[in-house]
Amino acid sequence: QSFTLKAIGRQLGNEAGVALAAALEKNSSLQSFTLKAIGRQLGNEAGVALAVALERNSSLQSFTLEAGGTQLGNEAGVALAAALEKKRSLQSFTLKATGTQLGN
């Protein structure tokens, strides 16, 4: 099963991002997750929650996050890197963060 959400030019903030992460963490049949949150108020809290969900989801094989122009920061970037390092079963990981402050 796959999940794709395109929130380009729509309101998708930290609260919604955290809720999506909680659902992702608990879904044991999802194999592919794609979130395109271009220009939205997706911040560190949502980024960290998505990283935790990525690490804990047992069935996920593909993870894509397009977060251009969002407010993801250092904390989210570090958490995603740590999750990626631990998630050996992941076959595909894509992060597009154009115009996003993911770190120094």
Describe the structure.
This protein is of the alpha/beta class. 38% of the residues lie in helices and 19% in strands. It has helices at 14-26, 44-56, 74-86; strands spanning 2-6, 32-36, 62-66, 92-96. A four-stranded parallel sheet has the order 1-2-3-4, with no helix packed on it. Helix 1 (14-26) links the parallel strand 1 and strand 2. Helix 2 packs parallel to helix 3 (74-86).
Beta-strand residue percentage: 15-25%
The stretches of 5 or more residues where confidence is low (pLDDT under 50) are none
Structural class: alpha/beta
Q: How would you sum up the major sheet?
A: 4 strands, parallel
- Radius of gyration, in Å, reads 12 Å
**End-to-end distance:** 36 Å
Number of strands: 4
Name the overall outline.
globular
Q: Please state how the strands of the largest beta sheet are arranged side by side.
A: 1-2-3-4
Order of helices and strands: EHEHEHE
Oligomer: single chain
